[in-house]
Input
Amino acid sequence: MGRHSCSVKQKLRKGLWSPEEDEKLHTFITRFGVGCWSSVPKLAGLQRCGKSCRLRWINYLRPDLKRGMFSQEEEDLIITLHKALGNRWAQIATQLPGRTDNEIKNFWNSCLKKKLTKQGIDPNTHMPVPEIEVKKEKEYADSVSPQILQTKGLPNLWNSTDIDHQDYHLMQIPIQSLNGNLFAKQVYDPLFLSEFQTSIDSNGYSPNFLSQDLIQGSPIVNPNSYGFNSMPNLTTFDRQNNTDYSECSSSRNNNNMVENGSTFCWEAENKLESMFQFQFSGIQIEETKPGLMQNQNSGDFCGYQMGSLPQELIGGNLDVFHEM
DNA sequence: AAACGGACCAACCGCTCACAG
DNA sequence: ACTGTGAGCGGTTGGTCCGTT
Output
């Protein structure tokens, strides 16, 4: 829509956040909660765009963030959820308390993908790579009948069994399309394509893969309730191969505010958490204020601060945003 | 010790969606 | 119905660190 990117605006800082900026943002959000992100920089005295502030809060300053290594359970859960949801990191993150979509995405791209590949599992399909190759070959062999090879002229496009893979190549249709259920239906039926797109997401995942728990959107408290039994036991697999799972999940910098040696100390700020009265797994949000809570999803923190702030601060918050 | 390359991760960018006017 | 704006999401980039040569 021709909207200006926040980076285009003048005088706005970019890049890494300084401890002072963190402190300003944290103090402001802690005191007034989250209202309108675009107004936060101005009100907090930051030379940043609102988008940048939002990201910094969500990915780094949020008091409930879990830091450090991903546990084995978390890794298993990410793999399971990725199998079901694909690259929907935000949805995956809602099932991992204290983890951000960005963190999970980075972890997936930098570590889990490689581990799965190492184990001979295609990280995109979650299928064993050799199995896929075998399947492809089998499909190819099945589809190439002598009759078809002898066919002159165009194949019957309305009968997918009349089309072999060579035909697809000639028509510049990606061979990947041949995997899955596509062959079971009329490939060129536009209505079918539409149906296909709605039933299978961009990563090729069908919602049918979703477990009952996921469909119902119930928060997963116990990873074991998520069908790990049917998962490849990556723990034993890797440990048997003397692979340390934690190596990739360890944060080199540990991203601990204390380590910044700055004026801002999470340990010292822990007391602030009591203000929030927020418990993730048990999902305990104290008296949410209708109208102030933008989103009560477990992974969204836009509103919980305000619901638990002292009354005078809530009032202050409203005042602040009414000034705009 | 210096150069190089890979790994990691914070942050940015561009897009879509929802909603208000 | 249309338009503008803000929020949220996923992909990508760029800086930093660390191990290797």
User: Anything to note?
Assistant: Chain A has 16 helices and two strands. Strands of chain A lie at 278-279, 284-285. The CA atoms of residues 76 and 233 of chain A lie 9 Å apart.
